[in-house]
Design brief:
It is built from two helices and no strands. The longest helix has 115 residues. 0% of the residues are buried. The model has no long low-confidence stretch (mean pLDDT 83).
Length: 154
Amino acid sequence: MTLTGVGVLLIGVAFIVIAIFVAHVLNNLAGVLSGVEKTVQQMPKQMENIFKETGSLIEESNNTLRDINDKMHQLSPMFHIMGDVGNVTRKFSSSLVDVTDSLKMKTGEVNDVTNKNKLGGAYGTFALGYYWLQKKRQQKKTQNDGVAGREFNE
């Protein structure tokens, strides 16, 4: 065997190895393509199921939205009433604030007058004396009524 024969033999062996490798790769590619074919064949049924489920989901969403709109329509008078109550309480509380502010101002004016004239102690003393005087008169009247009632019963 000459060198040429050995070279041709090596080229032939290399060609067979490459052919086996390419055959193996093509066989794997054929398996992948057959899996893709099965998936593509099942896709219309799967898409049909997806569209049916999506349609039923949209229908249920519309029903839920319709129900929520009905309930909101029924509750809207309640919200208006609550708003009116809030406005009334706000007006009432603001009028109370105005009244307390005016009373505070009047009290402040009276305090200013008493502090200015230094009559606070005199007014307090006069009020206490008047209260004691009334109390004594009431006690005397009660005692006199008791004595007169005993004399009448005897």
